[in-house]
């Protein structure tokens, strides 16, 4: 019953908000007139109102209404009753913390498990994995747990970035960080490059977009998978 | 009584481990024949033994013995009795988690507060701040708290990196991340570039090395401070 779209980013360099993926979203949200938007990740500290307005304007182009979850008096009931859900990017720790504080983890799992279409971008995609332990974000708040929604049986690394071979900076590359993750955790990690997304539809998990994705499995060399690969065997 | 050296990195591009700072360390550790090394941050998942060997070899050049804390049967007593302490880099979450699990936060605060010289690099510098909420590391384990050793009344961002104006990647710049931090936290943050360190000596906190540092204060524009600036008024 699942119908989930897990996107690396909301925005490609030089294009508008959600513009690169809007054609896919037209089909993805075809059954829903209204999308429930969860603005908790607050990119750049933006207010929930301003963030929701940005999203509303983007979805206006395909004739969808957007309702911000922060305007709902009962957030749990709002999630339960939603025809479609979008969780936008920002800070994954802030997002996760707010989901726990509002006791929304369980109802999100239930609604999306029952087929409510869910779109995540960036932080909203991180939380689709088993945990948020492969986020790139700064831990600016302390959430009650790093466990996430577990819509897929692996972890997501959005905004995946290949090592810059000319860099003289001694901070870790993304690949080094994910390898460190595997010294303490065993689930696979999908490095999703900007412009890529996963479409989870019932039991299939298809890589979409024009780019390959990088897969990190415990005790294996990382490898690339091409667009349209089905990743449902990965666990 | 404090005598603390908080370095952005252990290693500069193209030079050996601790090489750029060894002259300063010769003076800093002049009273100690043996340095207690805390290898918990495990960069790249390296073993405690291998990490301690790397550090031993580096300090051999200035005639210092190094003892790994993991070889001590009573880590708390080892910290209490240490003549000098070095906490190396790696993953800040792994390091913080191990410090809490071994109940070392209190004794470290006490020993360093009483004047035991403390050197931190990278993750070992992050934990010198009020919290680890401005680390760059991936949250690969869940520590019991993000609160850190609070040797200084602000937060550290080691490996500080200026924005790449040519980048087409949509992930946040370091400055954007620290600004997000200030939507949820009010303490100042020092962005320490690689090659810079802070020397905390009694009540003075002097920026050392050849580069300026970037200071982020709540509700203020970020600004640069030159080497040899005393930052003890920052809080």
TrEMBL record, chains A, B:
Name assigned to this protein: Dipeptidase PepE
Alphabetical list of InterPro entries matching this protein: Class_I_gatase-like, Peptidase_S51
Similarity comment text for this entry: Belongs to the peptidase S51 family.
A UniProt-annotated Pfam family: Peptidase_S51
Sorted UniProt keywords: Hydrolase, Protease, Serine protease
């Amino acid at each position: 019953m699942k119908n989930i779209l897990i996107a690396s980013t909301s925005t490609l360099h030089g294009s508008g908000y959600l513009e690169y993926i809007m054609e896919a979203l037209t089909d993805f949200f075809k059954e829903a007139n209204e999308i429930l938007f969860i603005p908790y990740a607050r990119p750049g500290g933006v207010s929930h109102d301003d963030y929701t307005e940005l999203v509303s304007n983007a979805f206006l182009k395909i004739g969808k209404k957007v309702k911000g979850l922060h305007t709902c008096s009962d957030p749990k009931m709002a999630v339960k009753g939603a025809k479609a859900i979008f969780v936008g990017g920002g800070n994954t720790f802030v997002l996760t913390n707010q989901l726990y504080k509002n006791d929304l983890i369980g109802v999100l799992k239930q609604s999306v498990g029952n087929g409510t279409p869910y779109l995540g971008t960036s932080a909203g995609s991180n939380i689709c994995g088993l945990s948020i332990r492969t986020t790139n974000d700064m831990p600016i708040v302390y959430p009650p747990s790093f466990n996430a929604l577990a819509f897929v049986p692996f972890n997501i690394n959005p905004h995946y970035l290949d090592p810059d071979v000319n860099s003289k900076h001694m901070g870790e590359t993304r690949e080094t960080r994910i390898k460190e993750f595997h010294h303490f955790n065993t689930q696979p990690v999908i490095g999703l490059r900007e412009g890529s997304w996963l479409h989870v539809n019932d039991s299939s998990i298809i890589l979409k977009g024009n780019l390959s994705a990088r897969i990190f499995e415990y005790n294996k060399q990382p490898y690339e998978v091409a667009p349209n690969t089905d990743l449902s065997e990965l666990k």
